[in-house]
Amino acid sequence: MLALERSGSATARTGWQPAHLTVEAEGEVQGILPAYLKSHSQGEYVFDHNWADAYERSGGTYYPKLQLSVPFTPATGPRLLAQSGAARAALVRAVEGVAKANKLSSAHATFLLPEEQACFAEAGWLMRSGEQFHWFNDGYGSFEDFLSALSSSKRKNIRKERARAVQGLEIVHLAGAEIEERHWDAFWEFYQNTGYKKWGRPYLTRAFFSEISQTLGDQVLLMLALRGGQPIAGALNFVGDDCLYGRYWGASEDVPFLHFELCYYQAIDWAIARGLPRVEAGAQGPHKLARGYRAVETISAHYIAAPSFRDAVADFVRREADMVKRDIEALDMATPFRKS
Predict the structure, then answer these.
(1) Which of the residues 15, 59, 74, 337 could staple to 45 if both were Cys, CB 3.0 to 4.6 A apart?
(2) How many Å apart are CA 40 and CA 45, to the nearest integer?
């Protein structure tokens, strides 16, 4: 988060005004909650554009709202940074107090850990279900071990995709001090190409990539595809204690299946080699299912100030949760793994 703010990626100018909250007792900080005052709903990956539109059409002012998250990061992780349950509950109450005092329409805590969900639910926040695709390491010793768990047709398809993707290319993994500014210059170009196609404007500044190199060290993993020694595509990952988090990808050439190779298969290979339990490959993407990723539920919590609007949103999230549950069940039956 500090890198995002220092680099100018998450600032008031870009619609992410830092508004972090703390709870103190007897002069000591008991808890911290990362928060941003948002003037739009971009870069959150839990979509509330329809809520904003409905609220505005009914005569309300949806923005600014309060967003409790890591900007541009659809990864489940800690939000209530406190040691005690009392401090976590106090942080939730503090959010509500800030929203009421400033007449904000809403507050949103996204990608919550299971142990934090109860704090928001007990406070009466609306709990919303979402869906992502994660890969799980079932004790595989190699990528071939993983493939052996798949049906024959899926194994053959992945082998063909991988062979075609890397034809004439070299794949390199760079971490920490191995990543030089020239590598970031190349990846910045790839990232911009993808960003303009997907979002219209890339979220991150060039300075962000240099910042994470200096502050995160070996937690940064950059995978590059080289043709004749020159990068033509790249995928940026972050290394956690028990997970590899895939974040951004881009390319200067349109190479069939190279996206799958760099973002999914190389990530699986890397995780297996280091015994990591799982890979999270970012938001959305049912196409990941055929590559051995599985649908999982994600949870967010939402505080809606206006009672009548809250009732409408509550009805929506109830119906949406049923749809997400049914979808995950159906996708679980459609995984490429061999049926016992």
Answers:
(1) 74
(2) 12
Residue 267's Cβ-count burial label (10 Å; 0-12, 13-18, 19+) is: buried
Whose CA is closest to 45, among 281, 257, 233, 277?
281
pLDDT for res 286: 83
Tally: H helices and E strands in the chain: 11, 14
Segment 106-155, tens digit of pLDDT: 999 999 999 999 999 999 999 999 999 999 999 999 999 999 999 999 99
Domains and CATH numbers, the chain: 2-130+296-333 (3.40.630), 138-276 (3.40.630.30)
CB 126, CB 106: distance < 8 Å: no
DSSP string, 195-242: HHHHTSS-SS-HHHHHHHHHHHGGGEEEEEEEETTEEEEEEEEEE-SS
- Distance, in Å, from the CA atom of 279 to the CA atom of 108, rounded to the nearest integer, reads 25
Q: For the chain, what's the residue count?
A: 340
Query: Alpha-carbon distance 111 to 232, whole Å?
Result: 32
The phi and psi torsions of 249 (rounded to 5 degrees) equal: -145, 155
Instruction: Please give the C-alpha separations between residue 76 and each of 53, 82, 112, 266, in angstroms, as whole numbers.
Output: 27, 17, 6, 22
